[in-house]
Each structure stands twice: as structure tokens, then as C-alpha cells.
Amino acid sequence: MLIVSAPSGSGKSTIVNWLMKEHPELRLYFSISCTSRAPRGEEKDGVEYFFLTPEAFKEKIANDEFLEYEEVYENRFYGTLKAQVERQREAGQNVVFDVDVKGGVNIKKHYGDDALSLFIQPPSVAELRKRLEHRGTDTPEAIEQRLAKAEYELTFASQFDQVVVNDDLETAKQETYRIVSEFLK
Q1: N or C terminus: fewer CB in 10 A for the chain?
Q2: Chain centre distance of CA 147
Q3: Is residue 11 scored above 90 in pLDDT?
């Protein structure tokens, strides 16, 4: 299993999507997380996330259906369903978790040496601001929230097996590929 975490805008999803598309020999498959936020852009339910209402998410928490979950912002939950992960493991897939830092740390604790945890780090908070503004998916208020959260999330880097600094996307992609390939061998 591969756990990839990063502050929003660090390039985590770009790197993971590249790895999955360009390196099918790694047999990587997303663990599709649940969220209570609204879809962004072209996101589709059951593809990028399972989109739930906050009430439905809280019901699944009460039923102990999550491997991990986090209320990242008020009534904005993200989590990984236990049943989803087990179905994928039983199918022999190398499961990829694209999760927030607390979720990443929790999944690593649960699976131990069966999982590799990677932290994708931006070169600076100023660069992170530029990236978030450039992608154009968030309001200025949401960007400020994400930046405040990012400063906190950066303190988790040392709890991951490996840290990849994404100051150059191509270099970060190749470094991630090398690390993942070595782990899967």
C-alpha cells in the first residue's frame, strides 16, 4: 500500500495521477475516499471521491465504517472506508491512499510495514499560495484557510517514511517513482 499526503496545492494528486497513468507495471489503484465537500470542477461521485452529506458521513462514523477519517474543516469530512480497502486488497491491487496528513499517519500506524508513507512537500508557503491561486478552484477565503492548514500540516512531514520536495514537478515525479518502485520490490 502507498500512502501519499501533502498540504493542498503541493502537487500530490498530480504526482500520484502521473505515477498511475505512466507506470501501469506498478499496479496502483486508488482507494477512493469519502468527503462531505462539494465536487470541484469535473469531479464525479465514485471516481475521485464518494461525495456524502455531512449527515451521511457522520452516520458512517457512528457505524465504525472508516479506517480513518478527519473533520478537516467544520462539517468538511474526509475518510477511507474499511470495506473499500479490503475489496481492493483481496483483488491483489496495490492500494494508493491520497489522504490528508492525519489520515496518512493513522493508516501507516494501522498497516505498518505493509504500507509506504510519502509526504509531498512544497518548496515554501509562498510557492504554495501561488499554486493555489493559479489553479483557480478556491475563493480567496478558502485559500487563506488552506494556507493556515498547510503550515500546520508541514509539521507532520517527519512522521512519514519519505519526504519528496516538489520544487520541480518532473524531478519530484521521478523521485517518487524511484521510491515506490523500490518499496514494491
Answers
A1: C
A2: 17
A3: no
